[in-house]
Design goal:
The chain is mostly beta strands. 4% of the residues lie in helices and 39% in strands. The chain contains two helices and 29 strands. Strands 3, 4, 5, 6 and 7 form a five-stranded antiparallel β-sheet that branches. A four-stranded antiparallel β-sheet has the order 2-29-28-27, with no helix packed on it. Strands 8-9-10-11 form a four-stranded antiparallel β-sheet. Strand 20 and strand 21 form a beta hairpin. The longest helix has 13 residues. It is globular and about 50 Å long.
Length: 399
């Protein structure tokens, strides 16, 4: 693995931000960061957008001005939705590359798990995927859109950034996304099994159980940003941005503020939601496996532990699914509310900070969906993905 350390992109971004008089985090000057009233659950509904998918697991946009939505199937295909209609040929099909478990009918945490479009995708046609390969390894790969064919990716264009051994078949993590700083963030589970037998959560000498931050523009396969928190720490790997994570199942950046939300799936009793402010310099320790949410689990020491802003026990669900801060225009009453849910019970919650910046949370609705993911389109509207095969959108009642 070739690793180079570069600050070029960050320096350029800082200069550009100064020229534009904008903060480098991407925070909008008029961004709404708090609210005192809870969202009115009676004013919103979930509307079916599309059905017929096989184990859909994520939906996102390319940021290219087309308004298209890209839907991931865990079994290896990426489909395009344009004006609510599914393009008949998949954008990309990697089913021959992924773990055979994802092609079977049994439950698995392997397969095609993540998709992120380069911030300059409109010009470059470059995007990235996260999948577990036929050997069960975690793979981050770069792909290119087919020249002059915006509805097709070039399957022969794969360039692997890295391949990481996964000791067990579960806790594969899988979410990838670009921050406002232009760097690629990658969530990796703790290696699997149960109770963190590898001790990965508090071990900064492994990439397991961490959130990575990589510069994929300055070098191939990637460079390490010089302002990563452990760049000069011999006891930690340079790529790590945050650690103490069990199995983050979806993280997201608030598009208006740059704040980071991470949903970390729990072990025996607790599911947790973590927060990192946009001005963080990284290095947060979210506590696993010393803690499960706010409760001591294995015990011991968790230096610089950052507690979750919300946790719920297994009487309400069994596997948290992270979502998005709503920044769309269809439901004014949802502004600045972070939406998330539970895979097992179909509950959906909204969390927000009040005027004193204290966290508040309500259960927004109870559904019969197996919530495998949330999605966000180019306009900031938020979607719910049902693992059974359908895609829904939050809309105002009466629409």
């Amino acid at each position: 693995m070739t690793i180079q350390k570069s600050a070029a992109f960050r320096i350029f971004g800082g200069i550009l931000a100064l020229l534009l008089c904008l903060p480098i985090t991407g925070q909008s000057a008029d961004a709404i960061i708090s609210r005192d009233a809870p969202p009115d659950a009676a004013a919103m509904q979930l509307t079916t957008v599309a059905t017929g998918f096989h184990r859909p697991i994520y939906a996102t946009h390319a940021g290219d001005g087309t308004g298209r939505l890209f839907v991931l199937e865990q079994s290896g295909k990426i489909w395009i939705l344009e004006d609510g209609q599914q393009v008949p040929v998949p954008f990309l099909d990697v089913s021959t590359l992924i773990s055979p478990a994802a092609l079977s009918q049994r439950y698995t945490e392997q397969g095609l798990l993540g998709l992120a479009f380069h911030p300059d995708y409109a010009n470059s046609g470059v995007f990235f995927i996260y999948y577990t390969d036929r050997g069960g390894n975690a793979v981050i790969a770069r792909y290119q859109m087919m020249p002059e064919q915006p509805y097709l990716a070039d399957p022969s264009s794969e360039q692997i950034l890295f391949r990481l051994n996964q000791p067990y078949a579960n806790h594969n993590g899988g979410h990838i996304d670009f921050g406002a700083d232009g760097y690629l963030y990658i969530a990796l589970g703790d290696g699997g099994s149960a109770n963190d037998p590898l001790g990965a959560g508090q071990n900064r000498q492994t990439l397991l159980g961490t959130l990575l931050r990589l510069d994929i523009d300055s070098a191939f396969p990637y460079a390490v940003p010089l302002d990563n928190p452990f760049i000069d720490d011999a006891a930690a790997l340079d790529e790590i941005w945050a650690y103490g994570l069990r199995n983050v199942w979806r993280f997201s950046f608030d598009r208006a503020t740059g704040d980071l939300y991470l949903a970390d799936v729990g072990q025996n009793q607790w599911e947790e939601l973590n927060f990192q402010p946009a001005d963080s310099r990284g290095g947060e320790n979210y506590g696993w496996n010393v803690y499960e949410a706010n409760t001591l689990f294995a015990g011991g020491s968790a230096p610089n532990h950052v507690a979750p802003f919300f946790a719920y026990n297994h009487s309400l669900g069994c596997s948290v699914t992270g979502g998005y801060v709503y920044r769309g225009s269809a439901i004014a009453d949802l502004q600045a509310a972070y939406l998330f849910g539970d895979f097992c019970t179909g509950r959906i919650w909204a969390a927000w900070r009040d005027s004193s910046l204290a966290w508040q949370t309500i259960e927004l609705m109870k559904t019969n969906l197996s919530i495998s993911s949330f999605g966000e389109d180019e306009a900031g509207e938020v979607y719910v993905i049902d693992y059974a095969g359908a895609l829904y959108r939050f809309e105002a009642v009466g629409i």
